[in-house]
Amino acid sequence: MAVNIKRPNGTMDVVPGEAYKWHTVESVVRENAEQFGFREIRIPTFEETGLFVRSVGDTTDVVQKEMYTVSSTGDKTYTLRPEGTAGVIRATLENGILNEGLPQKVFYMLSCFRHEKAQKGRLREFHQFGCEMFGSPDPVADADVISLAHSVIDRLGLKNIVLNINSIGCPECRAKYRSALRAFFEPHRDELCETCRERLEKNPLRLLDCKSAEDQAIAKDAPLITEFLCEDCSVHFEGVKKYLGLMGIDYVVNPRIVRGLDYYTRTVFEFITSDIGSQAAVCAGGRYDNLVESLGGKPTPALGFGMGLERIILTMESQGLDFMEEKTCDLYLAPMGPAALDKAIELAAVMRSEGFFVEYDLVGRGLKAQMKYADKIGAKYVIVIGDSELETGNARLKNMATGEQIDIALDSTLCDRFSASYYETLLAADDELRGFVETLTGGGDTDK
Ligand code: ATP
Ligand code: MG
Known about the structure:
The chain has about 450 residues and is an alpha+beta fold.
């Protein structure tokens, strides 16, 4: 019987020819996060369900509709993480990281699982780069976290991405705002979608987040949170704006951003692109000053963001941006016959241990087919090893780009000889690099 098993709806395969795109994003993320003083944290893929219910919030879409929950043999249920923050806080507390002095700054790259309607830029398994900063209530921390996301986006070369910021205040401001929203939406109750009628009771802020066009039209005239901020929250928000200004980061204040997760307080933000259709937020986050305490820690102000890596890559593709080049083979060894293969195996082992990318024939191809293969994989150099090469211990090193050939000994000097030729070729192809190397080695003009 033919097996016809396909990947689950809403998941993705990253085939080898595409992985370099991920490497590009991952390396920029890692480098930037470290430059900002964030250290990597890794956490389990699943956690006790209660962790997400408590932190993300039991009236949110994520908890109500999107979690992948499994029960185990005991009485516990576990859920595949729908986001990173809850697990990171759990791990931070469990490992006493907040006792090591504040602030603590961590980042992560991980997969998240949400049972959503799968579409472009909206998957059931997706990947986030996220960061969390613990221990600073100061608006400078908000600006610093936002500037990390900004810097990753900038370093990747992304354009047309608008930073939207808002403050949703503290629980006191929000209680007043909630009543005002209820009063506003109540007369429209019958026109609202079913989910929003429920939201009206349980969590009216969420009404502003509804994706239905009719509900959005009603929400257009709803009161804005900005009118309900208390003095402290207003001052805090002004601070965030001031520091973003100092950093030269452009933003728009968008009082309609309330975010889909319950734990936020004060600053919330989204980086939005218009280039990948309706799944437009490439990064979103905010402050959550009460969450650490509600998960059993000491009261600790904190904030963070999650950046959707699939959406970042989609945007880069749609903007035609460059990705890091895929590594290609430095040297292909083409043996003719079993004795030559033995030699190739030995040489490849030495070259690989010196850090070169080396391949040799694994399928017993003839010389012509091997040369074709070397060309196809983009090998920079080829050495053919036949009977006469074995006999003399010398071979020809062929530069595949220029056709140039030099004699090379098939012994312990091969590595050095190859390196010399290899770097010479790199320099020849790059005047700027040559100038730089000459300056370093004192061979060129220096203006001391
Ligand atoms: P959206 O409004 O698009 O549903 P969200 O508010 O649910 O996003 P967050 O929980 O804040 O998103 O997650 C942070 C980021 O993770 C989002 O800005 C987005 O880039 C990405 N993201 C969220 N859900 C998905 C998904 N299902 N598929 C791909 N990326 C996602
Ligand atoms: Mg969502």
